[in-house]
Write a structure and sequence with these properties.
alpha/beta, Peroxisomal Thiolase, Chain A, domain 1, five-stranded mixed beta sheet, four-stranded mixed beta sheet, globular, binds oxa(dethia)-CoA, transferase, lipid metabolism
Length: 322
């Protein structure tokens, strides 16, 4: 039997209209534009409106990707959504997205891997296509991190933003997704978490917020991502010199620069959106990918390396022939 691969046929994204600048934050908390820029590279972030939800933002990103592909929602046969901030505990937000797209019957599920969620979702969707169980999959990463942070805590609130990104994966005779690797290490839970949920303080979440031991996370992220990208290249038989673009998770420009250095890639081969989006967790890679596809930087046939690291810890990389 001829092997089946998956390839990205289209990308899409959505960012909420409201922009929160570093100057806006300076007016609210004890921080400064220069601290935020120097330590993180962030200049502004988008914040969802009070009536917006992850499934609403996902619908916009999905329709954007469908339009690029020239496809209708009826052409999809699976929805895989990564999110840490679902509309509700259940039904899962991918079913809400499915309903918004006006389609029924096809499988639709969410998975949660914090900032690595998009790499996890891509990994899973790729396997559905490779096994022949699906031929066209909508893969979404969407987050409303603004709802998880304590807006009086300067160590976390300046970092995050909201948004949604999507790709459409289709069966193809050639890869596409050359390969992707996912990893996790639950021993690091205390360094980055939202310590509330059904198993913990569920009825009393009012004062529960995202918590991060930033500089410790930073050190593990830099070391782990360096190993992760090298592992991905070695596993799938490519050399770093072949890469056209690095599309990293957008948490901190200093982490991104460290990974680029490890790969010997100049920053003009790295897609950076953290300056304008902040850290949108699961949404950050598809948002960055869509930005660089739409402005013409990423061209068909180029070799892309995607990588992410986040709470759990979780991490992963994907090597993609676009
Ligand atoms: O996406 C998932 C993975 N997440 C990440 O990868 C994030 C990883 N961590 C980071 O990006 C960085 O550690 C941060 C940006 C969160 C912090 O940068 P840092 O260089 O590690 O700073 P720090 O936490 O060591 O804090 C240095 C100082 C502290 O003051 P003292 O104790 O030295 O007096 C903080 O209180 O900076 C202070 N500080 C701030 N000052 C102004 C922390 N946040 C702020 C702020 N404005 N917003």
């Amino acid at each position: 039997m001829t092997p089946v691969y998956s390839r990205i046929v289209a990308t899409g994204s959505y960012l909420p209209r409201k922009i929160l600048t570093n100057a806006d934050l300076e007016a609210r908390i004890d921080t400064s534009d220069s601290w935020i820029r120097e330590r993180t590279g962030i200049v502004q972030r988008h914040i969802s409106a009070p009536d917006e939800t992850v499934s609403m933002m996902s619908e916009q990103a999905a329709r954007n990707a469908l339009a690029m592909a020239g496809l209708a929602p009826e052409d999809l046969d699976l929805i895989v959504m990564g999110t840490t901030t679902p509309d509700q505990i259940f039904p899962n937000s991918a079913t809400m997205l499915q309903e918004r797209l006006g389609i029924a019957r096809i499988g639709a599920f969410t998975l949660e891997a914090a900032c690595s969620g998009f790499i996890y979702a891509l990994n899973v969707a790729d396997k559905f296509i490779r096994t022949g169980d699906a031929r066209r999959v909508l893969v979404v990463g969407a987050e409303m991190m603004s709802q998880l942070v304590d807006w009086s805590d300067r160590t976390t609130c300046v970092l995050f933003g909201d948004g949604a990104g999507a790709v459409i994966l289709e069966a193809a005779a050639e890869p596409g997704i050359i390969g992707s690797l996912i990893h996790a290490d639950g021993r690091y839970r205390d360094l980055l978490e939202f310590p509330g949920g059904v198993g913990r303080d569920f009825r009393n979440l009012e004062n529960v917020y995202l918590q991060m031991r930033g500089s410790e996370v930073f050190k593990v992220a830099v070391a782990t991502l360096g190993q992760s990208v090298e592992e991905c290249l070695a596993r799938f038989g490519h050399d770093k010199s072949e890469l056209d673009w690095l599309i990293p998770h957008q948490a901190n420009v200093r982490i991104i620069q460290a990974t680029a250095r490890r790969l010997g890639m100049p920053m003009d081969q790295v897609v950076v959106t953290v300056d304008h989006h902040g850290n949108t967790s699961t949404a950050s890679i598809p948002l960055a990918l869509d930005a660089a596809v739409r402005d013409g930087r990423i061209q068909r046939g180029q070799l892309l390396l995607l990588e992410a690291f986040g709470g759990g810890f979780t991490w992963g990389s994907a090597l993609v022939r676009f």
